[in-house]
Specification:
heterodimer, A: 231 residues, mainly alpha, 3-stranded mixed beta sheet, B: 284 residues, two-stranded antiparallel ribbon, 10 helices, globular
């Protein structure tokens, strides 16, 4: 029994590990915004007409997990800038454009790092987002950025390679800058309020099952994560 | 959390556990002196480390060294915000709540790191005496007006936060032998990123000590500090990197990613030696 399993057994580890992988919601046929491959390279295929990706195992699995998150974020900001909400300010446009470009850079970087081991393009479902509404767009951006921070903070310990850990670190602090920026746009001064940072000064943290459950409403591709490392 | 239940569960899982440890009584005693929220949070770290040691993968001293390095930086930041908030008329009224939040986090980091170091059986370093003028104890260094000039105060704050982000990033690999400690360090690292973002936003709004023509943003563009002082440059050197893992991010896969975008999208680490050189003028 590994030390990690020991802690799980003792109930001291993240409560999230106890959560079952979330059941997928009803298949949503809303066309996605990405036109990338619908049949995917890593265990890809169709499930009842629905695209499926399997993140895989080990460090590759974790990199694919990050790649999936970056795909989602990039697709979101691309749409935000394609149809900017009413009354968007010059500064908001500037910040959101930069954030879009950062997320595209992350997405494409992961794509190249993963090479043939990468999952295909996710089909996103943004039907629940009102892109004409500032509150809807920034509210969703806040969820994505905070979730991104929590995901990288939770994924670091799942990586075996110190090099990959460093790259995850290089990206997560940029996601934290985004999260703080979006929060400040929504409510100035909420960059690190108690919904993001606890009383011990620690930021959000989440396991892959928790993160995948959080993004589930925004992704219609079925993401299989059962082979990801858990310690 | 009931400690006795936890230990019983461990006994069930591994009946020979006490041959690896010093006996049940000692295992319990080890935690008996713990009190306070930070200490409670450090409990899983202590437990994790106990087994790490017992199962023979000891790198605990290396982890303690990293945590003491981080503690020194957190002492620096915490005291900086305590003193700034105490300086009459220094911090603009609109920004005081933000600096209260940041101060609270830095003080919590100090407490958390101290508790973790103790939990691992180490000794937390003592808080140094600081010279926030960057005068090495002369109290008349280049930032002599740090507690009377808000522009200087903000510039030093931004530099501390951006440097903190780079410092934690540079140490992550040294914490890999403990999932619990690595997780905690990452969770502090991103908090420093949030702080940096907001302090930059404050500076963007009031423009104090922002060089003419520079559009300060919450992220770091190339190696630009956004501060009209060459003294802070070592905290930004290296941030201009646009190639990651041998992959050129500029124009990647045909996308219109500029060198500015590429540098902003990835924050860069600093080594312990680089960080210590940066903070040296602030430590007496």
């Amino acid at each position: 029994m590994s030390r990690r399993n020991f802690l799980n057994y003792a109930g001291l580890s993240a409560a999230g590990l106890l959560l079952a992988t979330s059941c997928k919601k009803q298949i949503d046929q809303t066309p996605g915004l990405t036109s990338d491959a619908r049949v995917n390279s890593t265990g890809g295929g169709k499930d009842g007409g629905k695209a499926v990706v399997n993140l895989g195992s080990g460090d590759i699995g974790i990199l694919n997990y990050a790649y999936a998150l970056e795909q989602l974020e990039a697709a979101f900001y691309i749409q935000v800038l394609t149809t900017p909400y009413a009354g968007i300010s010059a500064k908001e446009l500037e910040y959101l454009t930069d954030i879009r470009d950062h997320e595209i850079a992350h997405r494409e970087w992961f794509k190249n790092v993963l090479g043939n081991a990468r999952i295909g393009g996710l089909i996103v479902d943004f039907s629940g987002i009102d892109f004409s509404s500032r509150a809807s767009v920034l509210g969703t951006a806040k969820v994505f950025e905070d979730t991104g921070v929590s995901a990288y903070n939770g994924a670091g310990e799942l990586l075996e390679s110190a090099d990959y850990l460093l790259f995850a670190g290089k990206i997560v602090s940029v996601e934290a800058r985004h999260a703080a920026t979006i929060r400040d746009l929504l409510s100035y001064g909420s960059f690190a309020d108690s919904t993001a940072v606890n009383s011990m000064g620690l930021d959000l943290y989440a396991t892959p099952p928790q993160v995948l459950a959080a993004i589930d409403p925004f992704v219609s591709t079925k993401i299989l994560a059962q082979n990801l490392p858990t310690s | 959390m009931n400690l006795y239940n936890v230990i019983e569960e461990i006994e069930k899982a591994d009946p020979e556990v006490y041959e690896r440890l010093d006996g049940r009584r000692d295992a319990i005693k080890k935690f008996a002196s713990f009190s306070g929220k930070a200490a409670l949070a450090a409990l899983p770290i202590a437990l994790g480390s106990m087994f790490q040691k017992s199962y023979g993968q000891s790198t605990t001293q290396q982890i303690i060294d990293v945590l003491n390095f981080a503690l020194t930086l957190e002492y620096l930041e915490a005291e900086y915000y305590v003193r700034g908030l105490d300086a009459p008329g220094l911090i603009a009224a609109v920004d005081r709540p933000a600096f209260q939040t940041i101060k609270m986090h830095e003080l919590a980091h100090v407490e958390f790191l101290r508790a973790t170091i103790l939990a691992l059986g180490g000794t937390p370093v003592a808080k140094p005496t600081f010279d926030f003028t960057a005068g090495n104890g002369s109290m008349a260094g280049p930032f002599a007006d740090v507690f009377t000039n808000y522009g200087t105060y903000l510039a030093v704050s931004q530099t501390f936060e951006d440097t903190g982000v780079r410092a934690y990033k540079g140490q992550a690999a040294n914490l890999m032998s403990s999932n619990e400690v690595l997780r905690a360090a990452l969770r502090i690292h991103s908090v420093e990123g949030r702080h940096a973002s907001h302090v930059r936003e404050i500076r963007r709004r009031n423009g104090l000590l922002v060089p003419p023509g520079v559009l300060l943003q919450p992220w770091i563009t190339l190696n630009q500090s956004g501060i009209a002082s060459p003294l802070v440059q070592p905290s930004y050197n290296g941030e201009e990197q646009t190639t990651q893992a041998g992959i050129n991010v500029v124009g990647i896969n045909g996308f219109a990613i500029t060198a500015e975008d590429a540098s902003e999208a990835f924050d860069e680490p600093l080594t312990k030696a680089q960080v210590l050189a940066i903070v040296d003028p602030f430590i007496v």
